[in-house]
UniProtKB/TrEMBL annotation, chain A:
Domain ABC transmembrane type-1: 174-371
Alphabetized PROSITE patterns for the sequence: ABC_TM1
Keywords: Cell membrane, Membrane, Transmembrane, Transmembrane helix, Transport
Subcellular location: Cell membrane
Primary location: membrane
Similarity field: Belongs to the binding-protein-dependent transport system permease family.
Topology of the protein relative to the lipid bilayer: Multi-pass membrane protein
One Pfam family hit: BPD_transp_1
Residues that span the membrane, as ranges: 15-40, 174-197, 209-230, 250-270, 291-316, 352-371
Name this protein carries in UniProt: Carbohydrate ABC transporter permease
UniProtKB/TrEMBL annotation, chain B:
Membrane topology note: Multi-pass membrane protein
UniProt keyword annotations, A-Z: Cell membrane, Membrane, Transmembrane, Transmembrane helix, Transport
Domain ABC transmembrane type-1: 110-323
InterPro entries in the record: ABC_transporter_permease (IPR051393), MetI-like (IPR000515), MetI-like_sf (IPR035906)
Segments traversing the membrane: 6-25, 57-84, 114-135, 147-166, 203-225, 246-271, 308-327
Keyword Cell membrane: yes
Family: Belongs to the binding-protein-dependent transport system permease family.
Protein name, per record: Sugar ABC transporter permease
Location of this chain's protein in the cell: Cell membrane
Chief location bin: membrane
Length: 387, 337
């Protein structure tokens, strides 16, 4: 269809579809956007204004003290203290001011306010002020406290990440998560691929039964396994004189829990490889091991990649298995565990929570956007086939 | 920090090497133990046959071992544990099951689970289908799909932080920094502490899972929609069917199988859902679900393995029909090949 052709197809119904999809996209994007924007904001600003106002700047009420009486200068009959309330704060502007907390914005910037007792105060929007009295300021008078409504330009900072990565143990957790995730992604692929090959191309008694077992185990809830396995781990730990919560322990757990789906997906793919290639290799005297390594493994790359992404996301995002089999001490706690702990301990500190959430989300999102094609292919191979 | 990274890399490397080494050397050893030499033809062919008998089990051995230890054995062990006391030592018969039936929190969890099962799979499938149909018809549909699919990559804990921020509540006259309350306030409503309103708070938690899972439903259903032969739709258009009729009478029946797959997959996920409730409310304000109750009893007061085993068995019972259906479907498929 030509561009002009499709142009003419724009009608109210089509416009409605565009608008509806746009609305859906915005709804789906906004929650995540909130986290990303907030993590880059100053922590004082997060609590006083919604993140959606971050781009237009914010207004906040600041309490400031004017200069001390020893700065006063005599000008004709009156005495003047002058200076700038925004000293050292570039880009900000005073919008209004007041001398009582109840009315922090009683006077507009530039206006001359009559404070009684012969005192007047003028604050300009650039922050410069003139505090005037018709008699001398007494030397023991405390500096005057006033309130100013100050508008700040949009301001973004990386400070929150700095805090989180150094202070809140998120950096350590990041490494822990990687240590859990990488072997727990590679090992199951290797084990499942060998099993999938055996289940598709080797003849042995009980093959059909094994396939049925694998399919049945796909849906077994993880919760089933926790108590008996925890006991088993403790017993083995006691026997070997080792702690029961170790990295190899959780690698094996993740490998096993991912196994049914891995075998199922890979078997569907490997069984579909052309029969001629494998049989002619056999005729040429190649052993099953050689066929697997030299022919099947390279040919199955798309399926391996799609399962690798699944397993990676699944392990990286897991909380339950890590909590049970790796524990929550500092040297082992994974990112999701840290984040969950922060939700409990720093529930109101949104600068900490949002920056931490960003750190946990960024790796899977990069994987997702980089390898989305394979992810979709893997989903379709597993779910649609046969309907 | 650097030392940690290096040592982490070390163990990661060692683990992967060890796994590869198993397959390589087990096959090598088999070949050496049963040699196939040119000299003695009879011995060679006997050894060749023996190799063919053993090798499949070398290939499938590690997988089978893991499946049995981590999935089959626990199902049996949990079932047995459910008849024992809290320490798992004393046989108590059906006492734990009786406790469950009488427990208020357990009934609450069952009720909430049913609520989740009724709402989440249906909502995800519905939204997934609608979005799939709409995005398939516009030129920037793939970009839109990517964005709707994106939450699939985000952990449930991460998603919980994201949505907790949306539901954030500020008391008094403070400015609302939670989007939902800000919107409510803009339209003249009163801000609420959304996640502590009994009954309705369940729905606020469900929204998180729907947000995550709709993309999955959309991808699968979109592929299914593309598989529909165009002739059937063209025929319907010629017969004068409108868009609505085409959708419900022609498209939906043809992708019924895929809808069932999406629905079951999300149903299983809902039964396992744990992280969202843990991070958002930890089961407070009547939001407890079975998976969390089970986890709770695993560690509550030093742990009660009998009671948590009962809850695990209940979850297992709920997925059993799906399991049977799955195996049957796979069998039919294998025979068809």
């Amino acid at each position: 269809m030509t561009a002009i052709g499709s142009y003419f197809k724009i009608g109210p119904a089509r416009l409605f579809v565009h608008a509806a999809v746009l609305l859906i996209v915005i709804i789906w994007l906004i929650p995540t956007l909130g986290i990303f924007v907030s993590a880059l904001r100053d922590k004082d600003q997060i609590v006083v204004s919604g993140w959606w106002t971050a781009f237009v700047g914010s207004t906040q009420t600041a309490a400031v003290r004017l200069g001390t009486p020893d700065q006063q200068k005599q000008e004709g009959a009156s005495y003047v203290i002058s200076g700038n309330v925004l000293e050292g704060q570039a880009g900000r502007a005073v919008k209004a001011f007041g001398n009582r907390i109840q009315q922090p914005a009683a006077f507009k910037a530039g206006e001359t306010a009559d404070l009684g007792d012969g005192e007047t105060l003028q604050i300009n929007s650039d922050g410069s002020y003139r505090y005037v009295k018709n008699t001398a300021f007494s030397p023991d008078q405390r500096p005057k406290r006033i309130y100013a409504s100050v508008s700040a330009p949009p301001e973004f900072t990386l400070q929150n990440y700095n805090t989180v990565l150094r202070g809140e143990g998120i950096g350590q957790s990041f490494i822990n998560s990687l240590t859990v995730t990488i072997p727990a992604t590679i090992i199951p692929i290797l084990i499942a691929a060998f099993a999938a090959y055996a289940l598709s191309w080797m003849e042995f008694p009980g093959r059909g039964l094994l396939i049925a077992l694998v399919v049945g185990l796909i849906v077994v809830p993880l919760q089933m396994s926790l108590i008996p396995l925890l006991r088993l781990y403790n017993e083995i730990g006691n026997m070997l004189g080792q702690p029961s919560k170790t990295y190899p322990g959780i690698w094996l757990a993740h490998t096993a829990f991912g196994m049914p789906l891995a075998i199922y997906l890979l078997r569907a793919y490997i069984a579909g490889l052309p029969k001629e290639i494998i049989e002619s290799a056999r005729v040429d005297g190649a052993s099953d091991f050689e066929i697997f390594v030299r022919i099947v493994l390279p040919l199955s790359f798309p399926a391996l990649a799609s399962f690798a992404i699944f397993q990676f996301l699944w392990v990286w995002n897991d909380l339950l298995v890590a909590m049970v089999f790796l524990g929550t001490d500092k040297d082992h706690i994974v990112l999701t565990g840290s984040l969950n702990a922060l939700l409990g301990s720093r529930g109101g500190n949104w600068e900490i929570l949002t920056a931490s959430a960003f750190v946990t989300i960024i790796v899977p999102l990069l994987v997702f956007f980089g390898l989305q094609r394979y992810l979709v292919r893997g989903l379709l191979a597993g779910s649609v086939k046969g309907g | 920090m650097l030392l940690q990274i290096v040592s982490a890399l070390g163990v990661v490397f060692a683990a992967v090497i060890a796994c590869s080494a198993y397959f390589y050397f087990s096959n090598k050893i088999l070949d050496m133990a049963l040699p196939v030499k040119d000299g003695d033809i009879r011995a060679a062919s006997r050894n060749l046959n023996r190799r063919a008998l053993v090798r499949p089990w070398l290939f499938i051995g590690p997988a089978l071992f893991l499946l049995v230890v981590y999935l089959v054995y626990p199902v049996v062990a949990t079932f047995i544990l459910s008849f024992y006391d809290r320490a798992g030592l004393q046989f108590v018969g059906l006492a734990n099951y009786k406790w469950a039936l009488g427990d208020r929190e357990f009934r609450q969890s069952i009720f909430n689970n049913i609520l989740w099962l009724a709402v989440v799979p249906a909502a995800c499938t519905f939204f997934g289908l609608v979005i799939a149909v709409m995005t398939d018809r516009i030129w920037w549909g793939n970009i839109a799909k990517s964005i709707v699919f994106m939450p699939m990559a985000i952990s449930f804990v991460g998603a919980s932080v994201i949505w907790k921020f949306i539901y954030e509540y500020r008391g008094g006259n403070d400015v609302q920094i939670g989007l939902l309350n800000a919107i409510v306030q803009t339209f003249g409503g009163t801000p609420e502490v959304w996640i502590s309103i009994p009954f309705w708070n369940n729905f606020f938690l469900m929204i998180i899972l729907i947000w995550i899972q709709t993309g999955f439903a959309m991808v699968i259903l979109s592929a299914a929609l593309r598989g529909i032969p165009e002739e059937t739709i063209e025929a319907a258009v010629i017969d004068g069917a409108n868009g609505w009729q085409i959708f419900w009478r022609i498209m939906v029946p043809q992708i019924w199988g895929s809808i069932a797959v999406v629905w079951t997959t999300i149903t299983i996920l809902v039964l396992k859902v744990f992280d969202i409730v843990l991070t958002m409310t930890n089961g407070q304000w009547q939001t407890m679900v079975l998976a969390n109750l089970m986890f709770d009893w695993m560690f509550r007061g030093g742990g009660d393995s009998g009671r948590s085993a009962v809850i695990a068995i209940i979850i297992m019972l709920a997925v059993t029909p799906i399991m049977v259906w799955n195996v049957r479907r796979a069998n039919r498929e294998l025979k068809g090949h």
